[in-house]
Task: inverse folding
């Protein structure tokens, strides 16, 4: 029996929407019912270039998508400064919300969005794709293996890419009126999420930003980093994010008995397989002329790319709510809020002269 298809509406024609709309068409339980842009012509061209179904309705406004009774859920890839307005309005119109990250400019704004979703009984999820790859579950199994991995001690995550001159002049992520968090909100979201994921979303006690972040002329952050400290159990984590460095998406996770590293956690080198390298019981060789064993490579295959798995899971949750068999899954709002809380703490540490900031949830 074929799965019920959840009908998506898309607000805007952002570049990332090309990737996610492809996922909606590949997912067995979703389709694209409508797309809206401030320009009808732009929306029409976007729908054509991305091979939307002929049945997809094309609108010259976002409101028209939200007013369409044939739209069950909306995907919102708009600039972060517009998230509160459109995500809240979508929730009020009983549309489930898949929201691009960063989900908000601060946790206060995010709370407004989450309260609207909860009040309307709609599902909220942020569009962090790597969370849905089967590799992610396999890596968590490694961390949970006390016999081979031991106790978690540190996590170091990096997400950087070398932005070109056009990006650094014109992209919304460097415009203080559109995405004022810059690299911290964009690349930093992934790096911080990786740290929280490894710690089972246990929040650190303090966050301390590293000195000398890079800014553009508008004082938007182009690169930064921070340390996170769990004082009571001697754990620490660091992250670095940047628009000024070679493409790198690493997580390095260290335990008392083992460790592993993934080199492409944000987007796998190959969408059909995700790899990572792990080792345990490492020792120096005779006279310390070497060490072993060498790390083993784990290859986790997937029939569907991670963004399709994300959309499919979102569609499954929406169908459960629509059929009356389930309530909105609360873990996704909680995970998003914890990530935002850390982003806020890093921003506060930078603003206050790189002092440690206590994390308050």
Result:
């Amino acid at each position: 029996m074929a799965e019920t298809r959840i009908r998506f509406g898309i607000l805007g024609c952002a570049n990332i929407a090309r990737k996610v709309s492809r996922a909606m068409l590949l997912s067995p339980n979703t389709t694209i019912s409508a797309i809206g842009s401030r320009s009808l012509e732009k929306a029409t061209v976007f729908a054509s270039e991305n091979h939307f179904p002929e049945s997809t309705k094309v609108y010259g406004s976002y409101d028209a998508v939200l007013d369409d009774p044939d739209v069950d859920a909306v995907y919102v890839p708009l600039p972060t400064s517009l998230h509160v307005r459109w995500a809240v309005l979508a929730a009020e119109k009983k549309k489930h919300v898949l929201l691009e990250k960063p989900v908000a400019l601060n946790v206060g704004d995010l709370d407004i969005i989450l309260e609207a979703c909860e009040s309307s009984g709609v599902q909220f999820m942020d569009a962090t794709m790597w969370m849905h790859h089967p590799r992610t579950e396999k890596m968590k199994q490694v961390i949970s293996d006390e016999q081979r991995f031991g106790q978690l001690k540190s996590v170091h995550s990096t997400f950087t890419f070398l932005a070109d001159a056009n990006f650094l002049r014109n992209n919304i992520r460097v415009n203080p009126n559109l995405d004022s968090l810059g690299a911290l909100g964009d690349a930093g979201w992934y790096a911080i999420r990786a740290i929280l994921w490894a710690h089972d979303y246990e929040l650190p006690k303090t966050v301390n930003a590293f000195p000398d972040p890079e800014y553009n002329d508008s004082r938007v952050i182009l690169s930064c980093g921070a340390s996170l400290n769990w004082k009571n159990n001697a754990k620490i984590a660091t992250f670095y994010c940047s628009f000024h460095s070679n493409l790198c998406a690493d997580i390095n996770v260290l335990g008392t008995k083992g460790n592993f590293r993934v080199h492409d956690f944000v987007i796998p080198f190959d969408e059909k397989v995700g790899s990572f390298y792990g080792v345990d019981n490492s020792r120096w060789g005779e006279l310390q002329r070497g060490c072993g064993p060498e790390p083993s490579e784990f290859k986790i295959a997937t029939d569907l790319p991670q963004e399709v798995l994300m959309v499919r899971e979102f569609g499954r949750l929406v169908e459960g709510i629509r059929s009356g068999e389930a309530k909105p899954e609360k873990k996704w709002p909680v995970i998003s809020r914890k990530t935002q809380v850390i982003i806020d703490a890093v921003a506060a540490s930078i603003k206050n002269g790189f002092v440690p900031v206590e994390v308050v949830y």
